[in-house]
Amino acid sequence: MQKLISLILNSKLLLVFAILCTLLIFYLSLSDISSLPKLEVQYEDKLYHLIAYFFLNTAWLLAIVPYSSKPFKKNVLISLGIISFGIIVEILQEITTDYRVFDIYDIIANSSGVIISYSTFHFFRKRFLKI
């Protein structure tokens, strides 16, 4: 199992996956998604934001593992970059579309997803991944 995890973490595919996740979230964030099915869950939109940014941050943290000489510093910078990305996307929604609006609560949900991802990543990194 340890060899499989090491093989996956050292794969260039993780970087491609992280880039694709970023592009997908960027596209969906600026698209009209009103026709997508609803879950009928309270604060559904915020849940989507939290989950999307959790996976986006996790993908980037895993993608940079092989290149980390100073993992703590790089992980903090990646996570801050993802939070900044979320803020920029919210601003672009207001500026470039008439069907999406700037929402501070989306930024809070995005940032919460990043913080939970960062914490989870470090918990598992120390205990299971040995990286």
What do you see in this structure?
- This protein has helices at residues 2-9, 13-30, 44-64, 71-96, 104-129.
- It is an all-alpha fold and 131 residues long.
- It has one domain (2-129).
- Helix 2 runs antiparallel to helix 3, helix 3 (44-64) packs across helix 4 and helix 4 runs antiparallel to helix 5.
- The two termini are 14 Å apart.
- 25% of the residues are buried.
- The model has no long low-confidence stretch (mean pLDDT 86).
Task: List key phrases describing it.
131 residues, mainly alpha, 76% helix, 0% strand
Q: Biggest sheet: strands, sense, closure?
A: none
Low-confidence sequence ranges: none
Mean pLDDT: 86
Order of helices and strands: HHHHH
Radius of gyration (Å): 16 Å
**Whole-Å distance between the termini?**
14 Å
Query: Which class best fits the helix and strand makeup?
Result: mainly alpha
- State the helical fraction: over 70%
Mass-distribution shape: elongated
Q: Give the percentage of residues in beta strands.
A: under 5%
The figure for the number of domains is 1
Number of helices: 5
Number of strands: 0
How are the secondary structure elements laid out?
Elements: H1 2-9, H2 13-30, H3 44-64, H4 71-96, H5 104-129
Helix pairs in contact: 2-3, 3-4, 3-5, 4-5
Summarize the structure.
This protein is an all-alpha fold and 131 residues long.
